[in-house]
C-alpha cells in the first residue's frame, strides 16, 4: 500500500500547473510544422496534436525550420490538418518499470499488448535515452555466461556484461537462435526487443519459439514494421531502459534485440524527414552517432549493480557483411557471430560460421585446457575449409598430407557437434566434454598430477 501511495504522489508531482499550446502551420508527408511553441520546445520534446474528432496524436520534435518546430508522429496523421491545436507534453518521456513487467509483452510506449490487463508502475522513473555508467566506474566483464547453445558456449564463449552482434541475412535463423538463448541462458532476466518485426510472426515467435518457459522471465518490447519510425526507435530505447532497471536491482540481464539494422533504418527515416543530408548508402550521419549511444548502454554496471549482456542482431543487406551498419556495429561491440546462408542451405542450424566469428573476451576467460581443445577444433575446420574445393572435386589424395587427412576425418564430427535443434540445451561443461570426446581427447586434458596427457 505504501509503495502505491508513493508511486501515486510521484506521478502527481509530474502534472504541470499550466499548459502551453501551439498550432499546426504545415503538413508535408509525415512531417508536421508547429508554430507558437518554438521557444518552449527543444529537440526530443513531445507534443500532443489534437485532430478532428478530438483524436490525439503524440509527436516528437526532430528539428526547427524558419522559427517553426518540425515534429514527427508516433502514429497515423489521419484527422490532422492546418490549425489543429498542439499541446506541449507535461514531462520528458519516462518509463516506470517494476517487477510486474516480467512475463509481459508491451509496445514502444510501455503499454501492454498481450491482453493480460494493465501493468503496475514502479516507484522510480527511467529515462528512455539515459547515459551509460561512466567508463571509470564500470566493472570489468564477469564470469562466463551459459547460453545453452554449445556452438556459442565453446567456440564463442560470452561473459557477463559482454556485447555481441549476430550478423546474418534474412531467413538464416536469427529469430530461432534468439529464442534458444532466451530459454536456455542462466541469466536472471531477459529483456527482448523486437524492432521492426513482421506483425504476422510476433505471436508465432512468442508461442512457438520463446514459449511459456522463456516468457515467464522475460519482458518483450514489440514495434512492428508497419509502425512509425519513432515507435521503432523508441522500442529500442525502451528495451535498454528496462534492462537498466533490472541491472540496478543487482540482477544479471540478457538484453536481446532484433534488430539493430531496423533501428538504424528508423533513424535514417527520421533524419531524412528532418532534412539531414544522406551519407553512406542513404544513412544520415546521426545514425552513426546514435548507434554507440544505444549499444554502450549495455555492459557491466558499477558498484553493486548487475550487468547487461547484450546480443544484438544485425540484418546484413544482400548478405554483405561490410555494409555501413554492419561495419559500424562490428566496431562498437565486443565480438560478432556470423550466420551464413550457405551453412543454413545445407541444413545445419544454428548456421554459425565458426571461423568468421569471434568473441573478444574469450581468451581471457578460458582455462588452458578449454583454449587448447577449442583451438585444435578451429585448426581442423580451417584446414578443411582451405582444401574444401579440392576435396569435393576428388583432386586430393588421402595420405598426401597428415594434417589434411586428420581434418577430413574429424570434419563431419565437428559439424554434427555444431548442429543443435531449438528444443535441445547443452551447458558449458558438457559442451567442452563433448568436443574433447569427438576429437578423441580425454577430458580434462591434464591428468591428476597436472601434467598434460599426451596419449
How does this structure look, described?
- It is a single chain.
- The chain is α/β, with parallel strands linked by helices.
- Helix content is 36%, strand content 21%.
- It has 14 helices and 19 strands.
- Strands 8, 12, 13, 14, 15, 16, 17, 18 and 19 form a 9-stranded mixed sheet that branches. A 6-stranded antiparallel barrel has the order 1-2-5-4-3-6.
- Strand 13, helix 4 and strand 14 form a beta-alpha-beta unit.
- Helix 6 packs across helix 7, helix 7 packs parallel to helix 8 and helix 11 packs across helix 13.
- The protein is elongated, with a radius of gyration of 25 Å.
- The N and C termini lie far apart (68 Å).
- This is Flagellum-specific ATP synthase.
- Its main location: cytoplasm.
- Keywords: ATP synthesis, ATP-binding, Bacterial flagellum biogenesis, Bacterial flagellum protein export, Cell projection, Cilium, Cytoplasm, Flagellum, Hydrogen ion transport, Ion transport, Nucleotide-binding, Protein transport, Translocase, Transport.
- It is an enzyme of class 7 (translocase).
Compile the SSE list and pairings.
Blueprint: H1 2-12, E1 21-28, E2 31-35, E3 46-50, E4 56-65, E5 68-73, E6 85-88, E7 94-95, E8 105-106, E9 126-127, E10 144-145, H2 150-155, E11 158-159, E12 163-168, H3 174-184, E13 189-197, H4 199-216, E14 218-224, H5 229-248, E15 252-258, H6 260-273, H7 285-295, E16 299-300, E17 307-315, H8 324-332, E18 335-338, H9 341-345, E19 358-359, H10 362-365, H11 368-386, H12 388-393, H13 402-418, H14 428-438
Parallel strand pairs: 8-14, 12-17, 12-18, 13-14, 13-15, 15-17
Antiparallel strand pairs: 1-2, 1-6, 2-5, 3-4, 3-6, 4-5, 7-9, 10-11, 16-17, 18-19
Amino acid at each position: 500500500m505504501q509503495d502505491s501511495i508513493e508511486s501515486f504522489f510521484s506521478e502527481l508531482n509530474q502534472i504541470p500547473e499550466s499548459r502551453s499550446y501551439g498550432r499546426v502551420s504545415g503538413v508535408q508527408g509525415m512531417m508536421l510544422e508547429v508554430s507558437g511553441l518554438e521557444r518552449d520546445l527543444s529537440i526530443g520534446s513531445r507534443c500532443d496534436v489534437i485532430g478532428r474528432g478530438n483524436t490525439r496524436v503524440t509527436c516528437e520534435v526532430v528539428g526547427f525550420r524558419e522559427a517553426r518546430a518540425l515534429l514527427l508522429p508516433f502514429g497515423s496523421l489521419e484527422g490532422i490538418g492546418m490549425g489543429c491545436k498542439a499541446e506541449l507534453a507535461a514531462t520528458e518521456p519516462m518509463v516506470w518499470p517494476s517487477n510486474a513487467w516480467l512475463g509481459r509483452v508491451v509496445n514502444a510506449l510501455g503499454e501492454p499488448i498481450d491482453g493480460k490487463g494493465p501493468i503496475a508502475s514502479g516507484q522510480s522513473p527511467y529515462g528512455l535515452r539515459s547515459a551509460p555508467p561512466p567508463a571509470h566506474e564500470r566493472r570489468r566483464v564477469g564470469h562466463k555466461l551459459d547460453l545453452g547453445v554449445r556452438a556459442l558456449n565453446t567456440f564463442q564463449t560470452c561473459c557477463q556484461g559482454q556485447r555481441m552482434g549476430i550478423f546474418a541475412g534474412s531467413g538464416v535463423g536469427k529469430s530461432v537462435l534468439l529464442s534458444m538463448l532466451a530459454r536456455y541462458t542462466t541469466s536472471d532476466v531477459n529483456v527482448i526487443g523486437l524492432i521492426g518485426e513482421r506483425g504476422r510472426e510476433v505471436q508465432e515467435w512468442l508461442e512457438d519459439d520463446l514459449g511459456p518457459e522463456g516468457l515467464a522471465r522475460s519482458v518483450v518490447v514489440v514495434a512492428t514494421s508497419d509502425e512509425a519510425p519513432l515507435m521503432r526507435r523508441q522500442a529500442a530505447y525502451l528495451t535498454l531502459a528496462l534492462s537498466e532497471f533490472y541491472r540496478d536491482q543487482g540482477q544479471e540481464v540478457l538484453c536481446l534485440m532484433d534488430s539493430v539494422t531496423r533501428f538504424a533504418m528508423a533513424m535514417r527515416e527520421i533524419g531524412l524527414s528532418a532534412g539531414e543530408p544522406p551519407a553512406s548508402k542513404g544513412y544520415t550521419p546521426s545514425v552513426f552517432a546514435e548507434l554507440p549511444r544505444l549499444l554502450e548502454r549495455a555492459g557491466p554496471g558499477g558498484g553493486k549493480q548487475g550487468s547487461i549482456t547484450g546480443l544484438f542482431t544485425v540484418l546484413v543487406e544482400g548478405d554483405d557483411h561490410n555494409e555501413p551498419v554492419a561495419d559500424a556495429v562490428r566496431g562498437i561491440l565486443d565480438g560478432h557471430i556470423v550466420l551464413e546462408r550457405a551453412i543454413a542451405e545445407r541444413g545445419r542450424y544454428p548456421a554459425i560460421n565458426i571461423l568468421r566469428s569471434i568473441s573478444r573476451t574469450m581468451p581471457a576467460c578460458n582455462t588452458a585446457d578449454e583454449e587448447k581443445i577449442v583451438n585444435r577444433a578451429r585448426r581442423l575446420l580451417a584446414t578443411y575449409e582451405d582444401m574444401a574445393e579440392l576435396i569435393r572435386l576428388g583432386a586430393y589424395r588421402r595420405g598426401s598430407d597428415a594434417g589434411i587427412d586428420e581434418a577430413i576425418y574429424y570434419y563431419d564430427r565437428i559439424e554434427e557437434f555444431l548442429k543443435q535443434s531449438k528444443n535441445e540445451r547443452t551447458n558449458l561443461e558438457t559442451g567442452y566434454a563433448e568436443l574433447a570426446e569427438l576429437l578423441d581427447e580425454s577430458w580434462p586434458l591434464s591428468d591428476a598430477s597436472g601434467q598434460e596427457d599426451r596419449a
